[in-house]
Every structure is written in structure tokens, then in C-alpha cells.
Amino acid sequence: MMFFPKMTKSQRIGLLFVVLILFIDMLLYSLLIPIVPYFTETLKPSSTMMGILFSSYAVAMLIATPFFGPISDRIGRRIMLLIGLVGLAISTILFAVSDSLALLITARFVQGLAAAATWPTALALLADLFPPKMRGAIMGIALTAISTGTLLGAPIGGWLFEMSGHRTPFLAAAAFTLINIILVYAFLREETTRSESEKLQVGGFLRHPQVAFIAGIVLLAEISLCLLEPTLPVFMTDKLSITPAAIGLLFAVMTLAYGLIAPVAGALSSRFNPFTLMFVGILSLAVFMPFLVWAGTLWQAALAMALVGASVGFTLSPTLATLGEIIDRGGSGAYGTAYSLFNMFHGVGMVAGPLAGGILTDVLPVSSAIIAVAASIFSFGILLYVMLRAKQSSPSASTHKEMKM
Q1: Do the beta carbons of residue 203 and residue 398 sit within 8 Å?
Q2: Is 347 exposed, middle or buried, given 0-12, 13-18 or 19+ CB atoms closer than 10 A?
Q3: Which of 216, 261, 270, 312 has the most CB within a 10 Å radius?
């Protein structure tokens, strides 16, 4: 990409650390997945307790995100990133020594707290370092780091588990995180000076029509993506008679497509209307979701998964740079607060998606439930876009005052 030669040394270092931090965060998130059968066999938890284990991450992230983002606007990105990385190291060590379900849930909760510190701060650091014209593609690279960590976490965890037991994946991740802490402490420097002016009136920011549109789009995309995780594997197994390994490969295809399209969509958002791109992405997601249940072969299912993953990546990538531009127009550098709100929308989707999937599949067949969700996404996507256009064309659409710092 043409913008790489134009990056300064501080921009290159900042981007490198953000990629590493987001990668390790999501690697740790998915590292637990292949080790779950071991804990299920040894600890004998109920289905409810396993649900609590997995949801504790999102709950912790939702609780802590509103505090950590604004704090990073005041004390600086480097300090908050170090705090988050220390939290990640503690959580992985807790996973390694866990011999009870309570300790596992505690470790997952601490992991969610750490993510609440690292995610919005890392994205805010990119907004600090890069001008608006470069931000779209750069934020897409950040999303690719997230998807790559998600993609590799489970296979790496499974491989290390088979080699040396259930503690090894977590101890290796803790060592990697500690190295990351040392590197960030030694080499990451901030050029932006913090000031008291970098405060955001969150209520006014959320009432901004463009922010409200982004919030709705993120929620629709995240709920759809997280809804598929608990419902689709059983459906695909029953319909196509495929193995768990094949199910894993299907989700890997979806994650890979997400990661590949995110930088492209981010780059396009600096050249075209980003809200139109988000709208096209969410409608594409609604159109392609039914193909998941219509697929009759493994190859058709893989293509459908790729189209869904690419649609989600195309939808979400422009949201990050656009939030930064809205903050720029408000005359502040309170990116930490803005991206903490993005993290909250993401967290709500992580909680609501599996819940919605469970409720719908209790009353409908999985195929009907997914088609109903696709129809809902299509309808709500159009509604959000129509409302945005209506508010932007109204005389009161000058909303800078709503974002006063």
C-alpha cells in the first residue's frame, strides 16, 4: 500500500505495537477453546457454569470499558497499554494454575478487564499517530490483527496442549505477553501531550446522528457474528455430516475473509462516503447469511462463510476511522473515550448474540432462525440509513455543539 513509505518512525513503532497487542489479546481469547474439553472432563461443570465462564469476558469488558477509555485520554496511551498488558499476563497465569471453575471464571473476568484497557487505548493511539486520510487503512490493519489472533489462538492452544498439557499454552502466552510489556515500556513513546480539554460529553456524543448510526451498525454486525458461533456448528454437523475439525476450518475461513477485507474497506473509507460503505456491508451480511443454511456441500458452506466474514469486515472497518474523524470535528483528541464506546457496542453484541441465538433456536429451527435474523438485519440496516439521511438533511443537523468537550 502506498501510504507505508510515508510513515514516520513513531508511526511505524506505534502501529507495530498496536498490532502485537491486539493480536495477543484475541489469541488469548481463543486459546481457551481447545482446552475446554479438558476442563469439562476434570471439573465437571454444568452448562450454565460454562456459559458464565465464557460470558464473564464480555461482562468484565462492558463494566470496565467506560472507565478505561477516558482515563487513557488523561494519563496517556502508553501507561494504559502497560496496565492492560499486565492484566493479560495475570489472567494467563491464573488460567495456567486454575484447578477450580471459580478460578477459571476469575481468570476470564480479568482477561475481559485487560481487554477493556488495551482495545480502546490501542485504537486511540493509532488515531493520535495517523492523520484522517491514513486512518481508514490503518484501522483495517488493526482489525486484521484481531482476526489473525482469533484465527490462530485455537490451533496454537490445541497444539501446545497436545504436546505438553493444559498449562503450557497459557504459560507460553504469559511469556509472550511479558515480552510485549518489556518492549512497550522500552520503545513506545507518545508525541501527543495530554490536556484537560480532551474530555468528551458522552451523552452528547451518543446523540450525534452519525455516532448513533455507527453504534447501530456495530451492534447488528457483532450480534449476527456472535449468534452464529453457538448455533451454526450443530446445524452444519447435522446437515452436512462433517467433523469438528471441518467446523473449525469453516470458521477459520470466515475469520480469514474478515481479516483480508478489513484493510481494503478501511482504505476505501477515506475515498468514499464511509456511511454508505457501512450500509452496503450490513446489507451484504443480511443477503449472504441465508446462504449458510442453503449450502448443500462443504465447499458451498465455506464460500458462504467467507462471504459472511468479508461482509462483517467490510461493515466494521470504516466505523473506526469515522469515529476518529467525528472527534476531530469536535476539536478534541478524546479518542480513548470514543473507542471505549465502540468497545462497549462490541461487548453488547458479544453478550446479546449468543443470547438471541439461544432464544430463537428454542422456538424455531436453526435455518429459520438465521433467515429471520438476516431479514431483521436487512430491515434495521435500511431503517438506520434512512434515519441518518433524514437527520443529516434537517436544519438542526449541525451537531458540533452536541460534542463540546
Answers
A1: no
A2: buried
A3: 312
Are 70 and 167 members of one domain? yes
Residues 32 and 179 in one domain: yes
Q: Is the pTM of this model over 0.90?
A: no
- Listed residue (268, 357, 252, 259) closest to 318, CA to CA: 268
What is the per-residue pLDDT across 204-257, written as a single tens digit (0 to 9) for each? 667 788 888 998 998 899 888 877 876 777 788 788 887 766 777 787 888 889
164 with 183, same domain: the answer is yes
**Cα(269)–Cα(127) distance, rounded to whole angstroms?**
15
DSSP H helical segments within 165-208, as ranges? 167-187, 202-207
Say how far apart CA 203 and CA 208 lie, in whole Å.
Answer: 9
Sign of CA dihedral 243, 248, 250, 253: negative
Q: The cell 488493526 sits on which residue?
A: 142
Q: Of 205, 208, 215, 196, whose CA–CA distance to 333 is shortest?
A: 196
Domain total in the chain: 2
Give the confidence band of 192 by pLDDT, cuts at 50, 70, 90.
Answer: low
For the chain, the farthest-separated pair of C-alpha atoms sits apart, in whole angstroms, at 65
Residue 299: half-sphere exposure toward Cβ, Cα within 13 Å: 0
**pLDDT tens-digit series, residues 53-110:** 777 888 888 888 878 877 887 888 889 999 999 999 999 999 999 888 889 999 999 9
Q: How many CA atoms lie within 13 A of 97 on its CB side?
A: 7
Which CATH number goes with the domain that contains 30?
Answer: 1.20.1250.20
- Domain residues for 91? 8-190
